Amino acid sequence: MERLPSSNKTTYDAPKEFRSYEEEERYMRARKKVESLKGFYGHLASYVVINIFILVLIAFNMDEGEHFWKFEHFFTAFFWGIGLAFHALGVFGPDLFFGKNWEERKIKEYMSNQKQNWE
Predict the structure, then answer these.
(1) Residue 78 belongs to what domain range?
(2) Residue 44: inside a domain
């Protein structure tokens, strides 16, 4: 007779090799980061697809002589884009523009340049 799966489900499904608390915590943080990245890329994909669809609809339903490049045609893309930018900041954090340890890398770079100039 087959055994049924255990009903003792935990709130996470970490692999068995993660036994220590630190390893489990690292795994959970990494998993959370991957989930937030996945959510952002889904948001970005829907932004692009839906805004292209809206702009194509506007282009096909324009009256003759009407200009396409009006701000009102881009309301959705503009304001949704603001929300998308905040989502990106939430996912990537302040490291979005400069990256982790940017300041430290720049200091080392300038120090090595100065050292070469003195030699």
Answers:
(1) 21-94
(2) yes
